[in-house]
TrEMBL record, chains A, B, C, D:
Domain of life: Bacteria
Pfam families documented for this protein: LDcluster4 (PF18306)
Source species of the chain: Thermatribacter velox
Stored NCBIfam families: TIGR00725 family protein (TIGR00725)
Full protein name: TIGR00725 family protein
Gene3D superfamilies: 3.40.50.450
Length: 160, 160, 160, 160
């Protein structure tokens, strides 16, 4: 019934970098302003900042949690999905998103980037992992300087 | 942000029994009338009928899909979660629901009943499985005749 | 390379019934005597007793654990698979087994019985759940009095 | 009962590079010569070559399959685990291994590298992904030129 695209935001729960958290907040705002639903891992840090940004603009947020209780969700998640799967839930975040923004990130975020590449999901990077494979290839997805550019890129990709 | 309870509806995609499908439709209506969110496996049959009922009353529906594409969801699902996990997604349906209604059902529904019992989730049955364990115990959850009674029972349980 | 069949044994980690534990031990012995590999959830109670029985006869045992560390396996598991999936690993136990014995059991075992029925896996019951579906059908799998009979039934089914 | 370490081998099913397949074969031989069990994703390409190498040296192999049938395993897998989870099974490969070798690899392998870093598992690379995180850090795991060196490194790490 809802035909709004779902945009995933991936990043760590434990970012010590205030500028990454600020970027995530702006990503959330951009997603909501464009009328898309924001989906993430539902926890704190980058995830919470993105949800907070989306709610500030009246958007809708979904959290795919690693644990078995919805109580671990950050307070800006509208719809909590408790998977009980630990990090295997990272694949669900990718499969359920039409496109994704990686915002900073640690090893968990890297696994989500990998799944996004595997499934050919449009992916925009903001100060996140850069990759070179065993054959020396690079540039698997574009990196941006601002939340606005990153989200604009994804919407352009989804139009095609 | 949303403080609406999430009620799960479990039942088969392939019910040949029109009265079960009608029951599921009424279950969906009752859930939406009471302001709760309906969550299910997102496919056809009982799941689709319940979603259709909820949408008729202006409710919100979430589908937790077994496959890796949101395109398999029935047309009455608002928010589609693509898990790619096959029937392992049945556990997610249970963990994400505050309480559940089992409406008819085959082996997949039985697995969801089992997970609901395991996690102590309030569960109401409508023409579904009856169980006796190896020690001869029965009556693990109540069975009802109408959608209204089943849903009313769950809300009463959630109040406590 | 190994062409030995894999037989799953399902039952609770916390059986307070010594006769169920004794039955599980005999099930493990029978499986090993017939040259099959025993697969289970890798924890204590029925699972440990079955593994202990298999090892007494020189058999091989595999444990599919719910947690993320192999250290939670009982000491009679040869090959530990750490899934980190919680009870979603119950589906893996069923899919990886050619046939299964249910020995007593609680709600987790019921979910495994459900998945075995769903996937058409031969299943033998020993003092376990009895089922009646919403249409009044019963007898979804046979129940036996002894480990020997239960395991013999499964091997007969696998010969076909 | 078995106290042999389990070494995971990760890499793609569809390598077009004969030298990568040859490397994987040698990795499998090294693992078996040292008395460890080889665990992998159970499919073709790098996975099959590694299993073939292990079996040539009389080793034992375990395959954690993405699908729901053990029939998709390569012929050099001794013990097949059918997960039905798709790529979510990549996490199981990492959690069940004491240490891992990444041999070439595509996006799926990258997800396994990510999970290995997340869980602090010793990891050796052979012509595989090189990573730089958003803060510019590199060198998350060592890369080697030969199978012998890669496997020797892992055993040294496990001794500590």
């Amino acid at each position: 019934m809802e035909n709004k695209p779902i945009i995933g935001v991936i990043g760590t729960a434990s970012s010590h970098d205030a500028s990454i958290v600020e970027l995530a907040f702006e990503v959330g705002r951009e997603i909501a302003r464009r009328g898309a639903v924001l989906l993430c891992g539902g926890l704190g840090g980058v995830m919470e900042a993105a949800c907070r940004g989306a709610k500030k603009e009246g958007g809708i947020t979904i959290g795919i949690l690693p644990g078995s209780s919805v109580s671990e969700a950050n307070p800006f998640v509208d719809y909590c999905i408790a998977t009980g799967l630990g990090e295997a839930r990272n694949l669900i975040i990718v499969l359920s998103s039409s496109a994704l923004v990686a915002c900073g990130g640690g090893a968990g975020t890297l696994s989500e980037i990998a799944f996004a590449l595997k499934h050919g999901k449009p992916l925009a990077g903001l100060r996140t992992w850069q990759l070179r494979n065993g054959s020396g290839q690079e540039g698997f997805f574009p990196q941006f300087e601002s939340a606005r550019e990153a989200v604009a890129y994804l919407f352009k990709r989804l139009e095609v």
